Amino acid sequence: MPKTNKLQAWSKTADYLSCGRDIDEQVETIKKYGNHGVSQVLRAGVLAAHGIPKPKDNAENCIIFGCYRPFTTPFLLRDYVHLLDLLNIDYTYLDNEQCCGFPFAMQTSEDLVEVCKEFNQGNINLSIEKGADRLVYCCIGCVHSANNSFRDNADQHVYIVDLILDELEKLKIKIPATKIGYFEGCHTFFKSQYQGVELDWGRYRSSLGQIEGVEIIDLPSKMCCKVAPEKIIEKAEKMGIEKILCPCNFCYSSLKNVADGKVQLISIPEFLIESLETNLLSE
Asked: pLDDT tens across 103-119, in order?
């Protein structure tokens, strides 16, 4: 599949997010309201409705939920927070979180690095006020944008899965025999837009493989979830896979939209919660 086709597929998402606004109008929206698409009031309401408690005044880790993650996959955020609680990881989050600037990467070749850096610096400043020394991102796009803005401070900006695995890997977990299909994703868009910024994808698979009782079946990762998600589901069916796990939340959303009861899509936090709670019950 041509690389350009994969990149063009992302522009459709960008069209939806722009809501008819040009780049300048979107920048002004963020400067005025913080969020790229919706008000902070709606965001707070969605988080509360999914059981996420009010943020602490001070904590070691500051969670960045992202502009759209609370609305597109709020259950992922709920599960992430539940895992943090199960593992006794200290965290807080921002009442008025700034957009990371990722939506711009999907819709323009214009150099907006400095604009994105300004927005991400706003989150850093607010997290410092809460005593946090690490920003922890629930969205793949957000963590790429933040690391792109501050390449010399990668340890300060981490994907939430890495934070969770730092604690989880200290435990020995055993669950009943479980077979899962694993779709890492092609990462074409992120590799092209954020060259040199990469998550530790190999770690996510190897950590899952360390859970006793888990059998992982790899799906071809060169297929694109944006261009042909149906083909990925068809491939899983041909391989006899009933559950697909995606470490990327964009892949998870794309495949879930077309799974249509054929296979079960599970997220990393969902799988880890089930594994951890099953392990605790067996002790």
From this structure: 887 776 567 889 999 99
